[in-house]
Design goal:
This protein has 347 residues and is α/β, with parallel strands linked by helices. It has helices at 9-19, 39-45, 70-76, 98-106, 134-151, 170-179, 233-240, 265-270, 279-289, 306-314, 325-340, and strands at residues 24-28, 31-34, 58-60, 63-66, 82-87, 112-113, 126-127, 155-164, 183-191, 220-226, 257-259, 296-299, 317-321. 41% of the residues are buried.
């Protein structure tokens, strides 16, 4: 674990399970071995992640999209070279594991909730975080802790990491990043109706018609963390161009509540990703992330490329990392379209 330094053993075990399932096999709690009869046989039979065939980087304007594993890329990145992170990550990678993705694309089963259509409009699927076990929640913490420890030195002092989450697990993300060395700076609320919650007890709708098992979610938290500044904020701004958020205008501060519509059909047609966020929201977030409008924004879990498209639309440099070859292909097609898209929602 040279990359992240001293790390809890539970985090190392969880990292192995989450990021190298085709190399390591979990025999029992805390015990792992290389896939195959022996280490040599495993290496001969299976391609290591570092040696797999990655596609050629894609560039569009000031945006660069890389088909790589973000942990490997971060390890090779120069220290103090990134100015902000805006990302909507896979939560412990559980919902983006091959079996869960297969269930999602088949339209039933697994952690993904496939909501019904209303008025002829098909709603995007959502992960059901209420189904996660205690062990999976511990793995989620470990994932963000290891990720945060690796990322921290690559950010300039005062750089913000803004991470999409949900009300059920945002506290885990925030705690993991804090333990990794980030300062907790609150949450940004995306004020929008989702399909989470509000349901009657499963299998007992008629018996308990006046009961909702949990509140219908009408907001989405984005965890805000910051690498500690050097000295005062004004000193940090002068040296590193970071430490705060860019105001929408001189007389209006950047606020932590942003009204947002669900992602519309036009954008979902451009970018087929289950967690696609609307450009109207993403552009406000991205614009605020560089307080002086200078620097590089990273999205290490790019998905369909909405962060890079938003950065391009507001004139920022950006780098995106996407490991999944399918979504890398989606993003290459989607980024130019999303960047040119003109949202109807007020900004």
């Amino acid at each position: 674990m040279k990359l992240v330094g001293p790390t809890p053993s539970s985090s190392i075990r969880s990292y192995l399970r989450l990021n190298t399932p085709d190399i390591f096999v979990r025999e029992k709690r805390g015990v792992y071995r290389l896939m195959g009869k022996s280490a040599d046989a495993s290496c001969r039979q299976r391609e290591l992640p570092e040696t797999r065939n990655w596609e050629v980087p894609f560039t569009y304007g000031n945006a660069t999209l890389l088909h790589e594993d973000c942990f490997n890329w971060i390890a090779g990145r120069e220290d103090n070279s990134l100015h902000a992170v805006i990302t909507d990550p896979p939560y412990g990678l559980h919902e983006y594991s091959p079996d869960q993705q297969t269930k999602l694309r088949n339209g039933k089963g697994g952690v993904w909730r496939i909501p019904p259509s209303y008025d002829g409009h098909k709603r995007s699927p959502l992960p059901r975080f209420t189904t996660l076990t205690r062990e999976q929640l511990d793995e989620l913490f470990a994932f963000f802790y290891v990720w945060g420890k690796a990322l921290l030195p690559k950010l300039v002092p005062g750089a913000h990491a803004v991470v999409a989450s949900n009300p059920l697990v945002s506290y885990i993300v925030s705690s993991a990043l804090s333990d990794a060395g980030f300062e907790r700076r609150g949450e940004i609320v995306r004020l929008t109706m989702t399909m989470r919650g509000g349901d009657r007890p499963k299998g007992a709708h008629d018996e308990f018609r006046g009961v909702s098992v949990m509140p219908r979610s009408m907001w989405e938290p984005w965890v805000v963390a910051r690498k500690p500044v050097e000295g005062r904020v004004q000193d940090n701004l002068r040296k590193w161009k970071t430490g705060g958020f860019r105001r929408p205008s001189d007389d209006k501060p950047f606020g932590d509540v942003i009204e947002s519509s669900p992602t519309g059909k036009a954008e979902r047609t451009m970018a087929t990703h289950p967690s696609l966020k609307p450009q109207a929201f993403m552009r406000r977030l991205v614009h605020a992330a560089l307080p002086l409008g200078e620097g590089v924004i990273l999205d290490p879990f790019s998905g369909a490329g909405s962060t890079l498209a938003a950065a391009e639309a507001v004139g920022y440099k950006s780098i995106g990392i996407e490991k999944d070859s399918y979504y890398f292909g989606v993003a290459k097609e989607a980024i130019p379209k999303l960047a040119k898209y003109r949202p109807r929602e007020k900004s």
